[in-house]
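My hope is that you will study the protein record below before we discuss the fold together.
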Amino acid sequence: MGIVPLAKALELAQEYDLDLVEVAANARPPVCKLMDYGKFKYESAMKAREARKNQAHTVIKEMKLRPKIDPHDYDTKKGHVVRFLKQGDKVKITIMFRGREQSRPELGYRLLQRLAEDVQDLGFVESNPKQDGRNMIMVLGPHKKKTEAMAEARQAQEARKAEAKANPGRSQNAADAEAPAEAPAEEPAEA
């Protein structure tokens, strides 16, 4: 409608049985709209809720290791680190030294470097390994942001739901039954 005096704008609002809502107070002149104020409040609340829902808070997960960790334990801990990085979380890796292990910090340093190399496709070294008393600490940051990881997880979940709707009679157990059986184990060699 263009620039209208306040009295005329209020008159128009009464005529159409609407409210005069100030949308941009800082503009010169201030921008107002004729609309239902209750609907405006509801829509702005829904936008704020959606923005909060998509907002991600940074979480730092912690993984503790020992310098003389067993290979299987290392693989398990590495799997946890991979999962955290895929979820978009930062990971603080702590190597705990005890007793005489404190005189060999290079063992911890090598272990941290190995872990960083193993997960370099998912994350990067945010802070290099440094000795902190009896512990050595390194922080890994994800390549993906938390919001991207959340969106991917949501899409994967929706795809699974769509698949379940498309094949309602087919359960996971039925899919497992149709999967090819594993090859028989080789016979043990004679000693």
Summary: The longest strand covers residues 123-132. The helical segments are 6-15, 37-54, 71-86, 105-118, 146-166, 172-178. The radius of gyration is 29 Å.
